[in-house]
Amino acid sequence: MSRAAVAAAGLAGLALLSLTIGVGDFDAFDLTSDRASQRLLWVSRLPRTLAVLLTGASMATAGVIMQVIARNRFVEPTTAGTGQGAALGLLAVTLFAPATPLFLRMAAASLAALASTAVFLVIVRRLPPTQPLLVPLVGLVYGGVLGAAETFIAYQADLLQYLAVWLNGEFSGVLAGRYELLWVSGAVAALAYLVADRFTIASLGRDASLGLGLNYRRIVGLGLAMVAIITALVVVTVGMIPFVGLVVPNLVSRVMGDNLRRTLPWVALTGAGLVLVCDILGRLIRYPYEIPVGTVFGVVGSVLFLYLLLHEPRRAA
Amino acid sequence: MIEIDRVSHGFGRSPVLRDVSLRIPKGGITALIGPNGAGKSTLLSLMARLIPLQAGRIAFDGLDVSRTPSNELALKLAVLRQDTAIATRLTVRDLVTFGRYPRSGGRPGPEDHAAVGRALAEFDLGSLAGRFLDELSGGQRQRAFVAMTFAQAADYLLLDEPLNSLDLTYARALMHRLRSLADDHGRTVVVVLHDINYAAAWADRIVALREGAVVAEGTPAEVIRPDHLRSIYGVRISVIRHGDAPLALHHLADPG
Q1: Over chain A, what is the mean pLDDT?
Q2: What is the count of residue pairs from A and B with beta carbons less than 8 Å apart?
Q3: For residues B214 and B76, what is the distance between their CA atoms, to the nearest angstrom?
Q4: Which of A207, A208, A257 sits opposite B91 (nearest CB)?
Q5: A83, A84, A89, A91 alpha-carbon torsion, rounded to 10°
Q6: Residues A269-293: tens digit of each pLDDT
Q7: What's the predicted TM-score (pTM) here?
Q8: C-beta atoms of A210 and B140 within 8 A
């Protein structure tokens, strides 16, 4: 329990730190009297910090779910065509129905993400189970093909700028009124916790799930929907942030195992904390300019991931 | 009792089971034997509703597997397949606790924890309870999975070639434990076995399949006979007696 308290306190400290960092004049000690600082806090600093936390927590959760339903540790929504699918859906809506309200754009992005991830799963099921590394490789190729198609369409339609915003996540544009959809993705991640046991059993395989009386197809379908919704919401609001869903679950699994009832809160917490650290770094490194969080996370995440790969857990026989 | 009535099954065009009818009485160990491709594993998977039935009917104590809800069947029968390459990092205790899922619905109570404790003790896993599955040897992991099916406390236990990948010490210990499940806990064990001598030594009944049909069934002494073995495996095998059980000398050259 105390470990959780320490982690929560650490995250709260980071969040407070995040509130104080930025280019605008901000006086944390004068908040009661300084109205400009108050406004800055409510309109920009707090929304940005919350957006970072929600994104980190829900993308890490989506990563775990993706790994369960693909039965492979090395996949995540951005390497399984999910993010690209969401962007494709958005692109289609922007092209054919530019006046569509946000909620419907959201739905289109989610459906496209769902479809592209389902196709990925169908492909993956045909790969030999003895070659687990084929799965992420196929995912990268598949995502690349979808990405190329998007780039071509966007180039033809003069929409490359939009595509860049969706595919490269960063938080500098987050203001009150423009990030609130992320609460929905946070809520979906919280829902995942309610069915954590089922996901853990699903990770033991189809036969084990059926043997325990669970409907395996339904669990996979549910996971697929959750991954698609979370990813689509993140792509719509802040853009794709690669690696979070890959690195964080593997990190937590190494330390605490895969009993999701126990580990999912840690996955969410670690995801939120790690993305927040990277966002803070991105704001500080070349202050007053910013480095996109995706770039910082790419560096930090790959170092962490290399560490995980090179330090295999101990095994008997 | 397990009733199997006129079950046929095929993958694509090739038939795997042809009109199999079988009664497996409650209690004891029943071994399914036969050459590769005889349909043993398919029959077991159909019994465990891991594959949907195409034709025929299978019922456990009157519960039809294709009509009874899956979670209800999970209270009646537990299944262990060779689902190799388990990548999930669960502790042995957590894994065995998931065996209680059909009863606990994910909220294990005192009764469930007691059952998990008994399963860990029964399979000698007490000292390994906190270890992750990927830190165990193949034999230990196998034991953990059998303990999980034991904790499920179902009347029927279906195991698909559980001796694969076990060396002879573990293989013997596992058969010993299955024997005790049947004798001391009143479970009915149905097990697919590759080695007919394990079946002869440990099972109460043997069902032999060949090309999707039952070719012999009965006690080990009734089934493990040169004439039956010839019709099951298509080769000539001498059989001697060792103690009470027949012993097939299948590893020796054709007696000529």
Answers
A1: 90
A2: 93
A3: 25
A4: A257
A5: 120
A6: 999 999 999 999 999 998 888 898 9
A7: 0.91
A8: no
